[in-house]
Amino acid sequence: MNSHNFFRVLIAAFHLFLLQSYAVQGIIRIALTMGNTSFNKNGVGMTTSKQDIYFGEIAIGTPGQRFTVLFDTGSSELWVPSGKWPGKKPHNLYVSQKSSTYKPNGFLSIDTVNVGGITITDQSFTEARSTPSKKDPLLEETFDGILGLGSPQLSSTKTVPVWYSMMKQGKIEKNIFSIWLGRSESSGAGGEIVFGGTNPAHYTGQHTYVTVKGRRHSFQMNNIFVGKADTKRCSRGCKVFVDSGTTNIIGPTAMIKDINDRIKLSPDCKNLKKLPDVTFTIDGKSFSVSPRDYIRGEKPKECTSRFEGIDGFNYWVLGMPFLRAFQTVYDYTDEPIVKIGFAKSV
Question: Labelling 218: which of 29, 41, 101, 238 has CA 20 to 30 A away?
């Protein structure tokens, strides 16, 4: 299964299966380092899995029980494995009996949640009690669960997402959060999520903002260039959304094939240094993704493109290759109007 299908289907299937079975903190920075995880009131250390999924530590309950979660803009629920998880226990497990602030809520649970020093009270979440199958990929993943940062309309449990709870409870200085994903594991700079502001050290120039629509926060892009060549794709506009839980850039099969044919990647990586940038036009401005972001080096002298076509798609998903190239801001200042801004990462 390709990486997009693996993680997005994993999340969707797990949500379906699970349904069956104080003072203002100001600006909170959550470090996404690629080293060992750490936890304190000022931030959350992060690491990346072999699939380049960025995840980090949160705490649930009183006293806090620690979990590693994927921060995912493509979903809205928070879920972690339950203490009632049967058989082999591959992850950290939430045990409600150990928390003095736990409240039952049908098939859901309510408790305090700490994210980067922000303590959110009475947060609903899901306790995962099993996987859809004994061979489910989640059993081998290094993270425990998922913290969705998406729209409430994406919620299959009809609960208030963690991010919306932060805003509602007045925990942040500004109703924005920003994401910066680092590139180099050796540098120790995995990335950073900032709740309540941005970190100017991680971008250059001004952000270009677009007003998004619908439950997936979609917007329009135009004209895709490979190098200096106009592919004539999306010249009339293409629907697109940004997703931090997707490892690739996804699009309709024919369009992606055209882009990959123009890139002309050699499977043995010999022409890696000669590959062109791929440029997307958003709000009349150019946003270029370089080969260091859209090429995956899975093994020595073996490369694959992160441009992935899926049959039946009529929209685009700008996943981690785009988020690595551009520091991304989600602005809820005038909510329900939501804007997303992009500036070149540094």
Answer: 29
pLDDT in tens, 87-119: 556 688 999 999 999 999 988 999 999 998 889
- Delineate the domains of the chain, giving CATH numbers in brackets: 27-195 (2.40.70.10), 200-345 (2.40.70.10)
Active site residues: 72, 243
pTM for this prediction = 0.87
